[in-house]
């Protein structure tokens, strides 16, 4: 499989190392999302290892509530990954559109993302970057986990010691050991459940539970968590939801809600048929717009106007390069 097998339709997203387009496979007419990453930029940013590791990881995964890999290939300029196409937009987009999320909406995201994390745990994978930007909705409103760029395998019974992720969503244990005791961090699957708590809090309030930004000094973050200060909870939240969000945002990782098995014991999710979740039989009460692509239209304008080497002109550009190379051969 190569780029010639796909028709490039339009740009819908942009990441740290590349862009995302809607494509259609010419023989089957099936639509996909294609992420392409410039090799020179990847090398320059030291991202090659992460990109290749993500591809190998995705090849071993298949689950209805993650964004699955279909094809991976490369040419002289770019690395390509072809993924499930989900047209409901990411949760960051919907937060920015001022969607009024309710506890009923959040409940579906909670159990679907918990199911995805449970699947990853069975594969010994910690995602490490769960945030609204990395949760894609399908056209019916179901939540899917994407972007495994910093995900990592963990050996049974072992812990991870490297520091990575998006700082406002990173769990306390990633900071405290490293910066208070000069020891390497030591953490496991519980960090993803902390991030899930931050995400749910942000969806409902449009702010995060702790005043942490990417530029916030680690020493200040440690002080916040040392004080064990609870984030402000809204008075109108139900007791049932408060129990869940409080236990997800438990600073002590040993006491934190961090498994589907424990989640099932909470009144907030009473009545959920857990066998329905992976089959996407739950009925989300928020349905993304069917009349738009639920993404920033600036991505397509940038691809057409600003991008010096747009993907839809790649074949013509490479053909021209090859012809020039041919004329140089003696």
Automatic annotation (TrEMBL):
Biological processes annotated in GO: intracellular signal transduction
Domain AGC-kinase C-terminal per the UniProt entry, residue ranges: 270-330
Classification via SUPFAM superfamilies: Protein kinase-like (PK-like) (SSF56112)
Keywords: ATP-binding, Kinase, Nucleotide-binding, Serine/threonine-protein kinase, Transferase
Official protein name in the record: Protein kinase domain-containing protein
InterPro entries associated with the record: AGC-kinase_C, Kinase-like_dom_sf, Prot_kinase_dom, Protein_kinase_ATP_BS, Ser/Thr_kinase_AS
GO molecular function list: ATP binding; protein serine/threonine kinase activity
Similarity section: Belongs to the protein kinase superfamily.
Keyword ATP-binding: yes
Occurrences of domain Protein kinase (ranges): 6-269
UniProt cross-references to SMART domains, sorted A to Z: S_TKc
Entries under Pfam families matching the protein: Pkinase
